Amino acid sequence: MEVRIRLQKAGKTSNKQYNYRIVAISKSLARQGRRLETLGFYDPAKKPAIVSVNQEKLDQWIKKGAQMSETVRSLIKQKA
Description:
With 80 residues, the protein is α+β, with helices and mostly antiparallel strands.
């Protein structure tokens, strides 16, 4: 099973104020599919945008072979 670290949409849908969870999820599942673990969150609605990641969990998943999506990779790079 290939695991990806990517964004999962959450938040209010009525007025399109989304926030996102950073999750470890099977590559074959849909965006809203069942996640293996939640690693953090991203809230672009706040100024400045909030990115919070549990670095210890993230490192564990990367050691297990999980691949980060380009979006998550850029968010973590901006945070550092």
